[in-house]
Amino acid sequence: MLELKNITKKFGDQTVLGGVDVTIADQKTLAIVGPSGAGKTTLLRIIAGLTPADSGEMIWNGEPTTAAKMRQAGLIGVVFQGFELFPNLTVRRNLTLAPTLQGTSAAAATAQADQLLAELDLTAQADAYPFSLSGGQKQRVAIARALALKPKILLYDEPTSALDPNLRQSVADLINSVKAQGMTQVVVTHDMDFAQAVADETLTVAKLGGGEA
Ligand SMILES: Nc1ncnc2c1ncn2[C@@H]1O[C@H](COP(=O)(O)OP(=O)(O)OP(=O)(O)O)[C@@H](O)[C@H]1O
């Protein structure tokens, strides 16, 4: 279980997070919802160790930790809103690059990549480059790439926003099938129907006024 307590964040004079508590339970999906500008993405980036909080605590399985330590230990994976695939690498190489840089043998990384691609119905795209993929395929590659690093917690920033609305259900199905394999997930979304389709728990981030302490 990962707990964040009393997380605060300001940008200049604007308080975005004014003391937020988050509990991320093992093998569950937490949806973070709230209006545009409430700070959902900021909170996700703080959990991921990509943006520092101004204050607050982080506790992993009962022990104090930091987001930077969690990230360095490879415990957290992120699926970005725009997918951020490596454009000059094939789909398979998008999955194998980070594991091989971390010391996994090329053969083992390739075997694992091919298994993930098969599970996510991407075998036919293994040698393709990202530009040639549909939005839904790009997103599945982004999820497969994150899973290739074997995180304990997988974070998604607005996973439906860059996709055709009719793909919403298949993204929900995919997140639910990743959960069924034991993954702990956090999904930032402004889409309440989507949140309902994936979430065991929902955290609503309120929009604060600008300029307060
Ligand atoms: N790096 C930054 N520098 C300055 N202000 C920022 C920065 N990142 C976010 N903000 C501001 O913080 C507030 C919260 O932004 P954030 O993207 O976290 O909200 P959100 O709830 O994810 O919104 P949306 O649903 O529109 O994506 C916004 O007012 C935004 O302009």
Automatic annotation (TrEMBL):
The keyword Nucleotide-binding applies. SMART domains: AAA. Residues 2-213 form the ABC transporter domain. PROSITE patterns: ABC_TRANSPORTER_1, ABC_TRANSPORTER_2. It comes from the Bacteria. SUPFAM superfamilies: P-loop containing nucleoside triphosphate hydrolases. InterPro entries: AAA+_ATPase, ABC_SmlMolc_Importer, ABC_transporter-like_ATP-bd, ABC_transporter-like_CS, P-loop_NTPase. Keywords: ATP-binding, Nucleotide-binding, Transport. It holds the Pfam family ABC_tran. The keyword Transport applies. GO terms for molecular function: ATP binding. This is Amino acid ABC transporter ATP-binding protein. It comes from Lacticaseibacillus suilingensis.
